[in-house]
Structure formats: structure tokens, C-alpha cells
Specification:
The chain is mostly helical and 160 residues long. It is 71% helix and 0% strand. The chain contains eight helices and no strands.
């Protein structure tokens, strides 16, 4: 099941997913067993997992009717789509950064060429773009899936 796979990849318990999504634990259990979900439930889960609502709405989501390889493929496909959306968001952020800085540089040079105040904007926003890129390309993510998994295990009292 896609919801269960996404939950387990993040190291969350059903209770944690219920708390994050605002749904009941019983609803999470039912959805992971393949029962049909309401649109509101799917939208809530999509927001928690940071994926598109339509990826949770797939007709092959029910594992009782879909072959195991199809369910795995759909889950893997949903994860890849989520990663591509994050990459797209980073590239859009970078393009906005370059375009806006170019415009601000032109304004700065036209109005006050003796003081380049645009460098402060470039530095501040550039740090944000840098950390966005590091997170998207998974070079620096101190609170990533591994950290989440360790925290879940620690709170459940299991050995790490």
C-alpha cells in the first residue's frame, strides 16, 4: 500500500501519521488495508507526505485487486514524482533568484552605483538557495529519514 510505504519510509508510526494528518488511527489502518479513502483524507495525507493529491488517488492503490509488483511500482513512481517536484521547485527558486538579482543589480547601478547594496540581498537570498539545493539534492539534511527513524525507535524504546 502506498500510504503504508510512505509512512514507513519516514519511520512514522500510525499514531504519528494520524497526529500529523488530523485523521484517526483507525482511518490510517483502514486506508493501509486498502479501503477507499475520502477526498478530504487523501488531501490531508498528501499534504503530510508533501506529494500531489492525485498520486494517492490511483485506482491501483488497492493491493487486494492489484498485483504486488504493480503496487510496488506505483509506490516507487510516486516517490520519484515527489523528488522531481522538489527538484522543479529548486530550479524555479534558482531562476527567481537570478532574475530578481539581475533586476535589482540594474536598479542599484542606475540609482546608486557608488554603493552596491544588492550584494546584501544576493548574500542573504543566496544562502537560502544554497540550503534549498542541499536539501533537494540530499547533500545536507540533518532531520532526514534516518534521523526520523532513530527518533521513532528511541521513543518506542527500541534499541537503535
Amino acid at each position: 500500500m502506498l500510504i503504508q510505504k510512505l509512512r514507513l519510509q519516514r519511520g512514522w508510526s500510525q499514531q504519528q501519521l494520524a497526529d500529523l494528518s488530523g485523521l484517526s488511527v483507525r482511518t490510517i489502518q483502514r486506508l493501509e488495508q486498502g479501503q477507499v479513502a475520502s477526498t478530504e483524507s487523501l488531501k490531508s495525507l498528501a499534504a503530510v507526505f508533501e506529494i500531489d493529491f492525485s498520486t494517492l488517488q490511483e485506482p491501483d492503490m488497492n493491493t487486494a485487486t492489484a498485483p504486488a509488483s504493480s503496487a510496488t511500482f506505483n509506490a516507487d513512481e510516486a516517490l520519484v514524482f515527489a523528488q522531481v517536484r522538489k527538484l522543479k521547485g529548486f530550479y524555479l527558486h534558482l531562476a527567481q533568484y537570478v532574475f530578481t538579482l539581475g533586476l535589482l543589480l540594474a536598479i542599484n547601478l542606475w540609482t546608486h552605483p557608488q554603493y552596491l547594496w544588492v550584494l546584501w540581498v544576493a548574500l542573504g537570498w543566496g544562502i537560502g538557495v544554497l540550503f534549498h539545493g542541499l536539501r533537494v539534492f540530499e547533500r545536507f539534511n540533518p532531520f532526514g529519514a534516518e534521523w526520523e527513524k532513530k527518533e521513532v525507535e528511541k521513543r518506542l524504546g527500541r534499541k537503535i
